Amino acid sequence: HLFKVRERGSTVGQELQAGVVTWVTMSYIVVVNPMILSAPLEDGSSPISFHAACTATCLTAAIASGFVGLTANLPFGLAAGMGLNSYVRYGLIGKEGLSADAALACCFVQAMLFAFLAASGAVDYMQALLPNALKSSITVAIGVFQAFVGFQLMGLIVKNETTMVGLGDIEQPALWLSMTSTLLVAALFVRGVKGATIMGICFTALASHLLGLRDARQDPLVDPAGVGGAGAFDLDFGAAVERPQAFGSAVLCMLFIVVFDTAGVQHGIGQQAGLINSEGVLPGARFAYLASALGTGVGSVMGTSPVIIHNESAAGVGDGGRTGLCALTTAVLFLCSPALVPLIELIPPQATAPCLVLVGALMMTPIRDIDFTDLRIALPAFLTICVTPLSYSISAGIFSGIASFFILRATLRLAEVAERVGDDVGRCLFGSRLGRGSPRATREATALPELC
């Protein structure tokens, strides 16, 4: 009764299985996030301790995912955001020159502000301003982004110096294995086989090792024991006084990214799961925001970057996850993840790529809700869908769509007001001779005495 499993058309086994799928597709963060945050500075020292970041990554993911599962009853997996960790390490610490302690303090302040906005309902109000068609475009954009990431992981899409991106080496066995796995999992989906995603991941991982296709890491996972760096409980709020502009801009930038990223991802995945109600609202959304804020607050104290809802949660939803039991399963696995790092490293990139591509395909469905004959919504939706994968940023795509929507609406409103004022002034000055025969003049002819 706590998770309403049967009410949402699921089973306990299906929820547990979906939670495992979500964890598997997110598990890379356990290794990658600490490696990014502990990347050496110019003097060779690590700004943030690898061990502290690894522990913080696992615990914050467990806390945030568990919180959203128990309070919001939503199948979301939360963990440190990939774009945000790079921003903290290379933007704040590298470019701005903030200390790691000050950068983590920025994360903490951002978490408190986000919690206030979520608790006060400000984020819900911002969501209510958006039309459902624009929200649907966010779902589609996340799906395209998911597929783009999957194509990169399998090697189908690679960097190209001339055209920025290009077709990869189609003679690579790893690419063919990933494509084969994609078709295999798709066939299992069509046949209604439960656990198709996890079967595909296991098949690809096993085949990769048997065929010797696992990509070796460029840099081995070193043990940075004894290396200095920020760790748990190291926060420096003095930077807010010493460098208020850098500190404030960092907080606002992260807040903007987290608000729009979290809002867009949770609506998109909620729509995929069929949890959006008739009013276009996701029940429990406020607790999902609070889970992100809670995870970020705890994570900043422990030594990691802001926590968001991962779009890899769509893989678990695609495998049948519909309730908070799925998120709770993911949380338990993250709690055990520090001891499972060697096992996680055995999962090659091409093993998770097929499920990302298939989930992306499944998230195309809401595009039918967008009226592309109405440019007032077609342009913002188009920008959202295109900018997200091309900029490699969900928040950038969401912002471009939202900004263009409100700017276009304001421009049309101003034009309408200007036309009305011009017509009224013209009639007052010249009477019915101005605009005679126009629909507006005919419509409002009877109102002329009152206007003048």
Automatic annotation (TrEMBL):
Tagged with keyword Aminoacyl-tRNA synthetase: no
Mode of membrane association: Multi-pass membrane protein
Subcellular location: Endomembrane system
GO molecular function, one term: purine nucleobase transmembrane transporter activity
Membrane-spanning segments: 53-82, 102-126, 138-158, 173-190, 246-266, 287-309, 321-344, 379-408
Entries under Pfam families matching the protein: Xan_ur_permease
GO cellular component: endomembrane system; plasma membrane
UniProt keywords, alphabetically: Membrane, Transmembrane, Transmembrane helix, Transport
Superkingdom of origin organism: Eukaryota
Similarity comment: Belongs to the nucleobase:cation symporter-2 (NCS2) (TC 2.A.40) family. Azg-like subfamily.
Name assigned to this protein: Uncharacterized protein
Natural source organism: Zooxanthella nutricula
Species classification: Eukaryota, Sar, Alveolata, Dinophyceae, Peridiniales
